[in-house]
Design brief:
four-stranded antiparallel β-sheet, 8 helices, 21% strand
């Protein structure tokens, strides 16, 4: 998952960014509502962790702008305000979830994964495509019931494909989803990851649609 983290507290923001990265997520961190709006105008995210009490443009205003333009990106409000009426107001304003500081990293990551599943129309915690299973929480993959050892980015590519198995993903889309602003990217990185996945899963699991991108083999769904 690629996450936009909007948090003005430098110590907390750094801790959340590093913690979510350790959970296997790609995290871009900004420290103001203005920067959040700019980031959202140029980048697509799987979810947003949004502090409500930001300097300048507050989190509520960022969320309002997002929803007014029809952007349905899942938003988790992060705040020190724990009154019931504050939670209700945040959810009714368009937030998908609400977490009160101090934050437990495991809970935050689990809530983000749950939001990602709902956005993908997936109820079960494990994604399946035929005999292939992928568990985002444990970051494990099995094929025909046997574990498959994947490198971090290989897992991330497969996760993108299995979340929307009938929608091809272009190289640009995969690159955008997998790499944050501060990460160096080789021009052929996605091709290399796909090559390794085919070697480990089988050459026919991932189909290349010329000029479009990569997709899981539809024939495998019924396997």
């Amino acid at each position: 998952m690629r996450i936009l983290l909007v948090e003005d507290d430098g110590l907390l923001g750094n801790g959340l960014q590093q913690g979510l990265r350790q959970q296997g997520m790609t995290v871009d961190w900004v420290e103001s509502g203005e920067h959040a709006i700019a980031a959202l105008a140029s980048q697509r995210y799987d979810a947003i962790v949004l502090d409500r009490q930001l300097p300048g443009v507050p989190g509520d205003a960022v969320l309002t702008r997002l929803r007014q333009r029809g952007d349905a990106t899942p938003v988790l409000f992060l705040t020190a305000r724990d009154a019931i009426e504050d939670r209700v107001a945040g959810l009714d304003a368009g937030a998908d979830d609400y977490l009160v500081k101090p934050v437990d990293m495991a809970e935050l990551a689990a809530r983000l994964r749950a939001m990602g599943r709902r956005a993908a129309g997936q109820a079960a915690p494990v994604f399946r495509w035929g005999s292939l299973s992928l568990d985002p929480a444990s970051r494990t993959v099995t094929l025909d019931g046997h574990p498959v050892a994947l490198a971090v980015r290989e897992f991330d590519v497969l996760a993108r494909l299995i979340r929307s198995p009938q929608r091809p993903q272009s190289q640009a889309q995969l690159t955008e989803a997998l790499y944050g602003w501060d990460q160096d990217i080789a021009s052929n990185a996605v091709e290399v990851h796909v090559h390794h996945l085919r070697r480990k899963l089988g050459a026919d699991w991932i189909v290349t649609i010329r000029g479009v991108g990569y997709v899981l083999n539809p024939a495998k769904a019924a396997a």
